[in-house]
Structure formats: structure tokens, C-alpha cells
């Protein structure tokens, strides 16, 4: 009997001996602790070493009221020995909105993979976001990469204190008057203008339950502009497969494009697709050039420099 792929994978995992994955040694744990700057706990059943880093800023509801970090209001990182690499890592940063792009960019440049970004607010007064990461390499490399991203949070808060990033709220003219011609030229796309707002899209195709779907069923990279040519907001979404996701995220963040979310829209599609929502403000033409750069990186017309470790 031939097993279907999901059952075959489960069977392989079930039959794989626990000893196939080495323990994280005490010495390796000490290296991790020293780099991350916090002590973790070893979970023998999973042969994994986990560090939880509560965020006091995330637990404050009002000046006189706080929540327990045990609700999950924390960042965390887990290390395990790998089979094909010395180590693997998975983790999650709990972030305030003005920390997202700098932490995301630092994680990518340090050699980590970013796999998700979502809002996780408990209360409207305190927007929170979770940024998911993973990686492969040595324990030292992975711990150093995680620490660099954590240090970026400290740098943002040191510079801003309790102030929030005001660029998150658009300051636009009451009526949109976007000119499509320079944007079409910069993007190498043909957009439409409706009510002074510009929109262009590139459709892609994927299969869901054996049926092919495309742009009009939501599988598209789309870009829109509102406001005026000299004071615009760009909003849209890139749809990427697993091979292009990391390089497109690096391209967007390197040009200062603010990432709003990284998530799935579907279940069971082939190939798997991830949708990257963005929103940025500035001169419309400059924003269009930045987005064209990401599109060129996506298709391989421009190569990014290697990530630093």
C-alpha cells in the first residue's frame, strides 16, 4: 500500500528514533545564555532549549494596571540540534508597531527567516504584533542573530521612549489627485485611476483542491496610491511562494517600505503562498520606484547582497 504524502510524513516522524536528534548540551546552553543575555530551560522530551523574554511594555493596560506575562505577552526563542545543520531555531518577537520594520530588517540581514507577522492586540489602546522567525546554522550564529534583533527593540525604545511612531497615521489631502502616468512608468505596470486613487495588479495562479484560481479570486500582487503625487500613501500586497518570500521582504525593508502583515489567505494551495501587506507614505514616484525594486528582486532581475551573519 502506498501512503499519501501527509500520512507518509507522519509515519516517518513516528518511526524516527528520539535519539536521531542530539541533545542541546550544557555547554551549548551556556553559549546561548551568554549571547542572548537570559537563561532558558531545557525541555528533555523535545530536546529543545527555550528562553522566554517577557515584555513589560506589552503588559501595561493603563498607568495603574498591568497584565500577567503568563498570558503569552512575551518574546521567546527555542534552539534544538539539527540533523543537517548543527542547530535550528524558532521564535517569536512581541513588538510595538513602531518596532516592526527595524526588527524585521535586522532579523533578515542577520540570516534568520521571517515566516509571519500578525496583530495580536488585547486592547485597542496598545497595538501589539507578533513576528515569527526560524533559522538554521550553528548555535552561536543563531543566538547572535536573535540577539541582534532583540537589541534593535532596545534601540527603538531608547530613541523614542514611550512616544509612538507618528508616521503610521497618514496625513493626506482631503481629495486624491494621483497622476497615473509616472507611476505606470516607474512600476512597468498599467494601472487605473478611480476617484483620484491609483491601483495596479499582477495576477498569479495557484491550485486549491485541484482547481486553478488566479487574480480575481485574490491571488495577485496589487499596489494602490492615494493622496497627491508629492504626499501619497502606498498600500497593497505582494503574494509570494516560499522561494521568493525572504528576498522580497529584504527588498521591501531595505527601501523603507513598512510591512503591515505576513500571513496565509488559503489552506492547501499548491504552491503554498504567503501574502505580504504593506503601507508607506512619501512621494508617490519614489514609493513606486521602491516597490518596482522589490518586484525586480522577486523575478531575479536584481540580486540582493548576501545576508550578514
Task: Describe the overall structure.
The protein is of the alpha+beta class. It has 2 domains: 5-166, no CATH class; 180-299, Alpha-Beta Plaits (2-Layer Sandwich). Helices cover 30% and strands 33% of the residues. The protein has 8 helices and 17 strands. It has helices spanning 5-15, 26-36, 56-59, 100-109, 139-160, 180-187, 245-254, 284-299; strands spanning 41-43, 48-54, 60-62, 65-66, 74-81, 87-96, 113-119, 128-137, 192-194, 197-203, 206-208, 211-213, 220-228, 231-241, 259-263, 269-270, 273-282. The strands form 4 sheets. The protein has a 6-stranded antiparallel sheet with strand order 1-2-5-6-8-7. It has a 6-stranded antiparallel sheet with strand order 9-10-13-14-17-15, with helices on one face. Strands 12-11-16 form a 3-stranded antiparallel sheet, with no helix packed on it. Helix 4 runs antiparallel to helix 5. The longest helix has 22 residues, at 139-160.
Amino acid at each position: 500500500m502506498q501512503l499519501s504524502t501527509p500520512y507518509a510524513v507522519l509515519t516517518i516522524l513516528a518511526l524516527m528514533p528520539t535519539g536521531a536528534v542530539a541533545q542541546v548540551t550544557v555547554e551549548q546552553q551556556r553559549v546561548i545564555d551568554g549571547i542572548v543575555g537570559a537563561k532558558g530551560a531545557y525541555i528533555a522530551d523535545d530536546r529543545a532549549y527555550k528562553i522566554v523574554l517577557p515584555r513589560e511594555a506589552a503588559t501595561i493596560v493603563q498607568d495603574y494596571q498591568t497584565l500577567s506575562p503568563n498570558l503569552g505577552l512575551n518574546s521567546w526563542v527555542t534552539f534544538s540540534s539539527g540533523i543537517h545543520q548543527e542547530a535550528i531555531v524558532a521564535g517569536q518577537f512581541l513588538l510595538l508597531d513602531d518596532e516592526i520594520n527595524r526588527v524585521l530588517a535586522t532579523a533578515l540581514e542577520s540570516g534568520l527567516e521571517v515566516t509571519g507577522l500578525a496583530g495580536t492586540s488585547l486592547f485597542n489602546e496598545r497595538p501589539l504584533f507578533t513576528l515569527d522567525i526560524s533559522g538554521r546554522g550553528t548555535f552561536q550564529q543563531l543566538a547572535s542573530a536573535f540577539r541582534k534583533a532583540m537589541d534593535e527593540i532596545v534601540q527603538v525604545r531608547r530613541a523614542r521612549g514611550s512616544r509612538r511612531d507618528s508616521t503610521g497615521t497618514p496625513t493626506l489631502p482631503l481629495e486624491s489627485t494621483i497622476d497615473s502616468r509616472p507611476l505606470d512608468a516607474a512600476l512597468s505596470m498599467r494601472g487605473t485611476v478611480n476617484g483620484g486613487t491609483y491601483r495596479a495588479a499582477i495576477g498569479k495562479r495557484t491550485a486549491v483542491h485541484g482547481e486553478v484560481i488566479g487574480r480575481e479570486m485574490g491571488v495577485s500582487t496589487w499596489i494602490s496610491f492615494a493622496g497627491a503625487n508629492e504626499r501619497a500613501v502606498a498600500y497593497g500586497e505582494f503574494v509570494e511562494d516560499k522561494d521568493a518570500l525572504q528576498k522580497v521582504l529584504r527588498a521591501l525593508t531595505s527601501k523603507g517600505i513598512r510591512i503591515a502583515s505576513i500571513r496565509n489567505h488559503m489552506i492547501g494551495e499548491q504552491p503554498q503562498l504567503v501574502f505580504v501587506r504593506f503601507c508607506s507614505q512619501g512621494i508617490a514616484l519614489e514609493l513606486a520606484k521602491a516597490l518596482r525594486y522589490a518586484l525586480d528582486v522577486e523575478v531575479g532581475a536584481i540580486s540582493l547582497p548576501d545576508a550578514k551573519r
